[in-house]
């Protein structure tokens, strides 16, 4: 217990980000793109995993376009209720941002079973019918990314941003690479197997917290 340092609860997050900065500097990451830095740091804060310094991939205008869309009240669509729950609703409400997840809808499950598809695929199809600018935050289902890629290529949708950070082993790496292979939509992708719903939510929150 003698090594435990008392920190006021209100200062825990601040101190955490100071530690992240210190360790980044120790690792030689003294300069990080200022536009992307808040996102990368929040992902590290969420995961305690510094590998995200190297595997977070951004299309050229991803952060700029995402912020512009959010300021206009874009809709965020997630592929899990966990990601939906993790996005700061108060921060989103300031800009009239709606957050949707269709995965738990009974009719989505029924349709997916009848068609032999995943609920993630049907959810992305449902989301494509939402009017206005769309941001997709995918933290679990690579089939969601594959479906988004197909709909982009067919001209069915053109989202403002795709956050592609599903975690796992089957089709995860391949689905992320598909999203990064297209030039029509901005993306933030965690290359490789790592990711998760908490990472998707963290990226959304980093964008929301830095809109001013």
Brief descriptors of the model:
single chain; Rossmann fold; 50% helix; alpha/beta; 11% strand; 6 strands
Strand order of the largest sheet: 1-6-5-4-2-3
Give the overall pLDDT as a whole number. Answer: 94
Q: Please provide the count of β strands.
A: 6
Structural class: alpha/beta
Number of domains: 1
Question: How much helix is in the residues?
Answer: 40-55%
CATH superfamily: Cobalamin biosynthesis CobH/CbiC, precorrin-8X methylmutase
CATH architecture level-2 label? 3-Layer(aba) Sandwich
Please trace the helix and strand order, writing H or E for each element. Answer: HHHEHEHHEHHEHEHEH
CATH topology: Rossmann fold
Distance between the termini: 41 Å
Output the number of helix runs: 11
> What is the 3D shape?
globular
Largest sheet: 6 strands, mixed
- Detail the poorly predicted runs: none
CATH class bucket: Alpha Beta
What does this protein look like?
- By secondary structure, this protein is α/β, with parallel strands linked by helices.
- It has one domain (about 55-210): Cobalamin biosynthesis CobH/CbiC, precorrin-8X methylmutase (Rossmann fold, 3-Layer(aba) Sandwich), CATH 3.40.50.
- It has helices at about 10-25, 35-45, 50-55, 60-70, 80-85, 90-95, 105-115, 120-125, 140-155, 170-180, 195-210; strands spanning about 55-60, 75-80, 100, 135-140, 160-165, 185-190.
- Helix 2 (about 35-45) runs antiparallel to helix 11 (about 195-210).
- The radius of gyration is 18 Å and the shape is globular.
- The protein starts with 11 loop residues before the first helix and ends with a helix.
């Amino acid at each position: 217990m003698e090594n435990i340092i008392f920190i006021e609860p209100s200062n825990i997050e601040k101190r955490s980000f100071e530690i992240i900065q210190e360790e980044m500097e120790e690792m030689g990451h003294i300069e990080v793109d200022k536009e992307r830095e808040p996102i990368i740091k929040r992902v590290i804060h969420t995961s305690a995993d510094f590998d995200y310094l190297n595997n977070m991939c951004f299309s050229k205008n991803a952060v700029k376009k995402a912020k512009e869309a959010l300021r206009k009240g874009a809709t965020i669509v997630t592929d899990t209720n966990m990601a939906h729950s993790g996005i700061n609703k108060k921060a989103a409400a300031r800009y009239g941002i709606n957050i949707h997840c269709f995965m738990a809808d009974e009719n989505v499950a029924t349709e997916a079973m009848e068609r032999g598809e995943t609920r993630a695929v049907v959810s992305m199809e449902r989301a494509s019918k939402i009017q206005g600018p769309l941001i997709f935050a995918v933290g679990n289902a690579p089939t969601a990314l594959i479906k988004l890629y197909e709909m982009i290529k067919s001209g069915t949708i053109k989202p403002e941003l795709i956050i592609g950070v599903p975690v796992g082993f089957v089709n995860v790496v391949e689905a992320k690479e598909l999203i990064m292979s297209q030039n029509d939509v901005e993306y933030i992708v965690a290359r490789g197997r790592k990711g998760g719903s908490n990472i998707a939510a963290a990226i959304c929150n980093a964008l929301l917290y830095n809109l001013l």
